[in-house]
């Protein structure tokens, strides 16, 4: 007996309904969450200061998730980003405190290191032909070892200059936290790159069908490497800003961003498009996670509930993404 795909057994009206749900469920869920928390806590939740705080706290996760989005769009996964961000936070504080480098030079070196790590990931995947999950997980493990070796397992705290702290904690324009401004520039730039440039069209083509892209004359390996480089630079920027926010460089400080980034990216793929990864969707996915955590904190939910929520969001996100993709192919 021949199996028939579930989407093909559905009536046209049911497929339209499911298609609408797959595309807009995340946005409806975000709006419903904000409304519910606002009604339950009208004095604490629906305020400008709280919304600004949510964006500020989520800005670093959005930056690292946006970089991951580019790698995922080209059809690869980067599991090294959290470990890389932790290393970069230690490296930038070490260069400033231990080596006495000017802050701009230290930041530039660390961003270059992020690009280098991305390049290494890309070369391993495209030239050595190692699966991206294995390659980036292996590189991430190496980076963890380097982070502990560089810091001897001790946070770099003493001597961090105030100017470096202000990089993340300052408000240099219109009273808006710097992290929000930097996040807006990064996400806006990546959205323009993917959606409004010829290079972005190549990026999407490689992710959609690498074989067809290669026949069309696109340098597939080069595009995949570029995806890893962008992911690496965003991880480096996240590590720098996190170290500035914490006032220290700490091994494993950014490791948890890995799960958050993947949850945001996959949740975003179920937003507005049929299972396609895109920067705007990642932003919406990150906002859902951020407002969910914020609401739990306001109502005094135990810490373990945040991990439960994040894991559940990731499962739902992948399910919605798969549903949207199957409907688009039916």
Structural write-up:
This protein has a domain at 47-253. The chain is 76% helix and 0% strand. The protein is built from 14 helices and no strands. The protein is globular and about 65 Å long. The model is unreliable at 1-7 (pLDDT under 50). It is found in: Cell membrane. It holds the Pfam family BPD_transp_2. InterPro entries: ABC_transp_permease. Keywords: Cell inner membrane, Cell membrane, Membrane, Transmembrane, Transmembrane helix, Transport.
Brief summary of the model shown:
The chain has 330 residues and is an all-alpha fold. It has helices spanning 6-9, 12-40, 48-73, 81-98, 103-126, 132-151, 162-169, 178-196, 198-208, 210-215, 220-246, 257-269, 279-298, 304-329. It has a domain at 47-253.
Q: Strands, helices and their partners?
A:
Elements lengths: L5 H4 L2 H29 L7 H26 L7 H18 L4 H24 L5 H20 L10 H8 L8 H19 L1 H11 L1 H6 L4 H27 L10 H13 L9 H20 L5 H26 L1
Helix pairs in contact: 2-13, 2-14, 3-8, 3-11, 3-12, 3-13, 4-5, 4-6, 4-11, 5-6, 5-11, 7-11, 8-9, 12-13, 12-14, 13-14
Mean pLDDT: 90
List the helices and strands in order: HHHHHHHHHHHHHH
Distance between the termini: 20 Å
Described by the principal axes of the CA atoms, the overall outline is globular
Number of strands: 0
Count of runs of 4 or more consecutive helical residues: 14
Helix content: over 70%
Return residue spans where pLDDT drops below 50 for at least 5 consecutive residues.
Answer: 1-7
Helix/strand class: mainly alpha
**Any idea what the radius of gyration is?**
21 Å
* Major β-sheet annotation: none
Beta-strand proportion: under 5%
Subunit structure: The complex is composed of two ATP-binding proteins (LsrA), two transmembrane proteins (LsrC and LsrD) and a solute-binding protein (LsrB).
Subcellular location: Cell membrane
Protein name: Autoinducer 2 import system permease protein LsrD
Organism: Labrys wisconsinensis
